[in-house]
Amino acid sequence: MSTPITPLRYSFHADELTGPALRTFGIALWIGAVLSILVGIVVLAWPGSTLEVVAFFFGLYFFVVGLVRVFVGIVNGTLSPSIRVLSVILGVLLLIAGVFALKNPLSSLVVLALLIGISWITEGILALTQTVNDSSKWYGTLLGLLSIVAGVVFIFAPLSSLAILTVFAAWTFIVLGVFQAMSAITLGRVPKARLAK
Questions:
Q1: How far is residue 197's CA from residue 193's CA, in Å, rounded to a whole number?
Q2: What are the record keywords, sorted (predicted)?
């Protein structure tokens, strides 16, 4: 007798998650949102930011978010194995990007832009794969898409000066932080369309 093979799943529904799993995702989203908004504001407010300062704050953000993603992937046993593995792998990539930016803050502007771009694309993929089928679905989807678009812009658009890089990155961090906060607020809520049924 053959055993049925269940396909790998890279997304999940809110009703499949336990209370602790939803809380873990909510905390991860809040950590990312608060840190993202703070980094954006600090970098915008810092007069005459140097490349070293910008790299430090961005590296710190990616390191902490990567750590949270790895933690969620390891600790949250209610998720499918494929989501847990993907969370850990992409979290490790964010950790590596964060460590690189923290250890090599005087790298060239091009390297910093590539690092930020790759990290945002990674974070966008994570956001899309971990979108929950509840009220936060659209915020999570928009967060993922915006992260990927911002990452692609950083990799392929010629950002010729630190001032342009800093302003664009800071505002992108703030916008992405707002979307993470909205995802955290609506996480676990049943969409109104489903309530009406």
A1: 7
A2: Membrane, Transmembrane, Transmembrane helix
pLDDT digits (tens, 9 = 90+) for 74-97: 887 776 787 788 888 888 988 888
Cβ atoms within 10 Å, residue 141: 15
Contact 28, 69 (CB under 8 A): yes
Q: Which residues contact 46 (CB under 8 A, 6 or more apart)?
A: 53
Residue 136 CA to residue 29 CA, distance in Å, equals: 11
Task: Give the tens place of pLDDT for each residue, 96-120.
Answer: 888 888 887 666 567 777 877 888 8
In this structure, whether the domain defined by 18-188 belongs to CATH 1.10.287 is answered with no
Token duo for residue 165: 């890089």
Phi, psi of 12 (to 5 degrees): -150, 165
Contact 170, 44 (CB under 8 A): yes
Q: At 17, give phi and psi (nearest 5°).
A: -95, 145
Rounded to the nearest angstrom, the gap between the alpha carbon of residue 13 and the centroid of all alpha carbons in its chain is 19
The pLDDT tens digits for 129-186 are 766 555 556 777 888 888 898 888 878 876 666 677 778 878 888 988 888 888 878 7
Find where tokens 């990674």 sit.
122
Distance CA 118, CA 155 (A): 7
How far is residue 189's CA from residue 197's CA, in Å, rounded to a whole number? 15
Q: What is the CA radius of gyration of the chain?
A: 18
Question: Is 73 within 8 Å of 126 (Cβ atoms)?
Answer: no
